[in-house]
Every structure is written in C-alpha cells, then in structure tokens.
C-alpha cells in the first residue's frame, strides 16, 4: 500500500478521535478548537510564550528591528550611490596597467638600446 494511503487512514482516524473527544466532552471548547486548527493553537501558544517571557523577548525584538533598519538604510545608500554613478556616466580607468612580464631595455656602451634577450 502506498504511503499516501497510510496518511489518509491516519488523518481519518484522528478526525474520528477528535469527534469522539468533542462528543464526550473530554476537553474544553478552546482545546477542541486548537485541535481542529493546529495553526491557530500554535499561534496562541507562541503569543503566550512571548507574553510570559516579555522581559527577554522584547529587547531581542528591538535589537532585531534596529539591525533590520540599519541594513535597509545601508541598502538604500548603496542603491543611491549606484544610481548616482549611473547618471554620471561610465567609469574609465585612470591609466592602462603596466605589463608585468616586460623586461626593461639595456643600453650598451655605444648608446644602442638592446633587449636583454639579444
């Protein structure tokens, strides 16, 4: 049997179990709603943790927001400088690079220039 059928069977069984719990009143209404919608339950749990540990979470959130704002400002300055450079025209190199492997010429006693390879 393919694995997808196992997941379907598991899902159907969990729905039946949830309906049984709801019918027999094993859990309060809030818990049943959280079981029916796990994303809602997770969001509520995270919110409760943030509230419970506000003394630790708030300074971290503030530092994170400040860092994000600093990065946004840096990015905006970078974009502005690129736009300014683009409007000014293409950048040309100041001088051509000197060839590194070129050897200097040598002068003989008679004043003739020769290459060291001659």
TrEMBL record:
<feature type="signal peptide">
    <location>
        <begin position="1"/>
        <end position="20"/>
    </location>
</feature>
<feature type="compositionally biased region" description="Polar residues">
    <location>
        <begin position="104"/>
        <end position="118"/>
    </location>
</feature>
<feature type="region of interest" description="Disordered">
    <location>
        <begin position="82"/>
        <end position="118"/>
    </location>
</feature>
<protein>
    <submittedName>
        <fullName>Uncharacterized protein</fullName>
    </submittedName>
</protein>
<keyword id="KW-0732">Signal</keyword>
């Amino acid at each position: 049997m393919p694995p997808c059928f196992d997941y379907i069977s598991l899902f159907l069984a969990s729905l039946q179990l949830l309906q049984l719990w709801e019918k027999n009143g094993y859990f309060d209404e809030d818990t049943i709603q959280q079981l029916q919608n796990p994303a809602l339950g997770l969001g509520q749990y995270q919110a409760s943790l943030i509230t419970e540990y506000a003394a630790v979470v708030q300074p971290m959130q503030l530092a994170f927001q400040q860092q994000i704002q600093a990065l946004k400002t840096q990015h905006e300055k970078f974009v502005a400088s690129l736009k300014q450079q683009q409007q000014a025209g293409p950048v040309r190199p100041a001088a051509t690079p000197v060839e590194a492997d070129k050897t200097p010429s040598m002068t003989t006693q008679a004043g003739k220039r020769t290459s060291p390879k001659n």
